[in-house]
Amino acid sequence: MSDSNTGQPLLEMRGIAKRFGELQALKGVDLVVNEGEIHALVGENGAGKTTLMNILYGLYHPDAGTIRYRGKDVRITGPRDAIALGIGMIHQHFMLVPPLTVAENVVLGDERMGPALNRRAIEARVRELEERFKIVVEPSARIEDIPLGLQQRVEILKVLYRGSELLIFDEPTAVLTPQEVDELFAIVRKLRSEGKTLILITHKLREVLAVTDRITVLRAGANASELVTKDTTASEIAQAMVGRELHEIRPREKTGTSLPVLQISRLHALSDRGTPALKGVDLVVREGEVLGIAGVGGNGQSELAQCILGLRPVSDGTITVSGIDIAHDDPKRTRARGVAYVPEDRRVEGLVLPFTVADNFILGKQDHAPYARRGVLRRDEIARDGDRLAKEFDVRPPNANAIVGTLSGGNQQKVVLGREISESPKLIVISQPTRGLDIAAAEYVHERLLEQRARGCGILLISSELDEIRALSDRIAVMFEGRIVATLDAKEASEARLGLLMAGQAEAPRPV
User: Model pTM?
Assistant: First the structure.
């Protein structure tokens, strides 16, 4: 944990208000960031964190309020104004050009060196920045050839190249392994020691406690709390974010039997580009068990889920559910065998956004009774079950006629999850179940999954969130480059051990 900083205010945002149509996103928010500190900005989805930072970076214009930077009132009309002041932003989704080199991406958009770029000169300048801030990346490497952790370093070098003194990090650890998180935080601390000031937008409270000095908590577009990191706890921060005490997921007794509900043997499949994505995967999920799949995104997890559901062709191997091989079934037949699926991108794969909540609750069942008769939808049956399920799964507002695309991410996920578990499946394949969700919505999803486990359902849980994997799983399998490199009992799966496996480092053999 960092020491509290007592520097003078570098940034003061006072009374910031912003409305989008009928939504009042910010309601007179204050934010004070001291020079030379690491300041966390936390809150639930929709609390206004990103909106506030987009105003600071010039992407949005406030309806009311003032911004003071280095003691002077400033008007930021666009990112160029922010950059000129010394404000830089490292976005959650990297803004890089894959075919270009590290050095070319660092200087892209900066015209100070003129139209004829000198490759040696820009690579030398990038190396100077790397040495000063201990950020190691090969300047001549192409972005498409380096991992996500190094790509993030390139984003940091971009803002440093432009002379930024205040750096905004938006969810910086979302795609990193635990070891890469440690490396990032070493860079963050080095930046502070060099006099930089940092704002960290995150929902990972453990990381807030590990690296920040002070915390501003937003709730529903307003200030909820101002905290000194060394004087607070994760539960205090979480309570300030949601306005109530949250339930802790505690270790559970095993409920599973020895009966496998899902068995996968020697599974091979190709990626969308025709390259091997799965290379001989073997795994078993038993009744009443959660098997977590840990791994950095892009190591075959998505293809594994798609193969189970019949959404991707299987090149070789078997997939059996309750003893029946489904490797070459289509999705409709797979679902009829009791397999439910909650995809990683609910908006693209899980919902039809222009449809109502009720219509989305019956997707996959719309062609048979009770929702259809002789090819004609029965609107009364759809509406009745839509109302029931909206209430049962706490969709807010509980209006089955609401257009699902207008709901928050958490409520959209409740619709997908509710649709899938309302049929009492024997197996649930769920990918990134709480991606983009706030603490309260994530808590709801976890509780419903554990209810399914308790009734004997097998669950294959794919998540890039190690805390989630470790909290929910009975066993944890680690994927790297299309293979299962280890399967551990959850009690044996420390974060450090999982992180090494996720990075492709094999474990030393245990003494016999």
Answer: 0.71
